[in-house]
Amino acid sequence: MSIKIESETSSFRDNYGHVYHYDNKILRTVNNVAKKEYEFIKDNKILTKSIQKKFLIETLEIDKNKFNNKFSNSSYLLESKLIPYISYPYEWSFEQLKAAALHHLKFQLFLFDNNAVLRDASAYNIQFVGSEPIFIDVLSIKKYKEGEYWLAYKQFCENFLNPLLLRSLKGVTHNKWFRGALEGIETIELNQLLSLKDKISWKVFAHVALQANLIQKSINSPKISSKKLKNLKKFPKRSYKALLQQLHSWINNLNLKKTKTIWDDYSKTNTYKNKEFENKKNVVAEFVAKIKPDQLIDLGCNTGQFSEEALEKGANYVIGYDFDQNAVDEAFKISKSKKINFLPLVFDASNPSPNQGWMQVERKGFFERSKAKALIALAFEHHLAIAKNIPLDQIIEWIAKLAPFGLIEFVPKIDETVQLMLANREDIFDEYNELNFEKLLKTKSKIIKKTKVSESGRIIYEFETL
Q1: How many Cα atoms within 13 Å fall on the side-chain side of residue 206?
Q2: Which of 60, 287, 416, 446 has its CA 20 to 30 A from that of 106?
Q3: d(CA 12, CA 18)
Q4: DSSP code per residue over 264-295
């Protein structure tokens, strides 16, 4: 039985090579136009050293002939490790985007010392394995040409610097904007949002205000701008390197303008007692030890306490999702400090990432990417049912599609958390009760076990989908 080779829909733009999925691995062709560049990084050990330094994903050259004539038009065929979960910059928190930006710049500086550079600055070329960023596009590396400018500077600003400044200076998150404009935040648009006080900073003035002015001039007078570009003097290597170092230092010291969010202190101020928390931990521990999932989804992960428990009890990799930016930032810091296989992401379950981009397949939606053996959804369903008015049957159907095994917690109306949610609105949720929840859950799954975990009547159901 032959294994199917599937084309990766996001790689169509790159004429240097294309990406394919094969037997839980990633294949990448090196087209003839990229042959010399690839041979340069291979022959000069740049490829090997980049992998050893953990800048670049593990990649090896394989025999293209083993695939019959599938890759006969390519110069080389490469094989890379499969990333456990592909995420996008509009799903990252401030700290994650910052980590990705710093990784890009550190990689650039490393390459610069080896007479190479990156030919683009797309945030999509960086992925996370747990909390660790890794560069995935081998063919973005090219030989440095003496006197060349950083042609990807504008893209770096739009993909990394501008979204970070939006949060750092204005306290506005980048996620919805970036998701709506897949190429990032344009410098002209950011410049319009910044105040005169913001632009007093020389760095902000140079990288935002001045750049926006130059971009606008090129739009207004494209012929004049084109002539000026042709007459530009060579850019000294020391100046190129200094620019990268300056940006690295600046971004490294950026702090978010943190605003208080509803759930960012939930792990410390939640309404259940220590004994109830331990009850939930025990249920998770028993479930994970039994299922031992390679990949587990944690819906409403907050700072990742139950994700950590799952990893300790046998889960290999956990993807956590939470609406709260501050909680995800904290979860990311914890994951990084403990070096665990936990990737938290910013996520609105009532409006998850859709299929979008070219032909609506360039960037895959949440549902297409989020398939796991098991999931936990603790203190989660009531946020959809009560806060978002989503019917219970639809919530259960949606959750059941994500994994064959799971835990889901039902939070009754008498619980303090739900009472707070209902405090300033009419209670229109007649069908929101334990009996109805259980009846609906049985239509989509077999209930293996139910455990009461709080005095208010919170119940965790272990289920297996039908």
Answers
A1: 8
A2: 60
A3: 7
A4: TTHHHH-SS-HHHHHHHHHHHHHHHHHH--SE
Reported as a single tens digit per residue, the pLDDT across 156-175 is 999 999 999 999 999 999 99
Q: Helices 94-112 and 162-170 sit at what angle, rounded to 10 degrees?
A: 140
Residue 431 amino acid letter: E
The backbone torsions φ and ψ at residue 80, rounded to the nearest 5 degrees and listed phi first, read -125, 160
Q: Is the pLDDT of residue 43 over 80?
A: yes
CA distance 180 to 152: 21
On the question of pLDDT at 218 being above 90, the answer is no
Cβ 168 vs Cβ 185: under 8 Å: no
How far is Cα 271 from Cα 268, in angstroms, rounded to an integer? 9
Residue 389 DSSP one-character state: -
In this structure, are residues 95 and 303 in contact, taking their beta carbons and an 8 Å threshold?
no
Contacts of 423 (CB under 8 A, 6+ apart): none
Q: Which two tokens stand for residue 307?
A: 């994700």
DSSP code for 314: T
What is the C-alpha separation between 239 and 436, in angstroms, rounded? 67
The b-or-e profile of 316-340 (16+ CB within 10 A means b, else e) is: ebbbbbbbbbbbbbbbbbbbbeeeb
* Residue with the two structure tokens 């995420």: 87
Ranking 9-13, 73-77, 424-428 by mean pLDDT, the lowest is 9-13
Token reading at 85: 């979960």
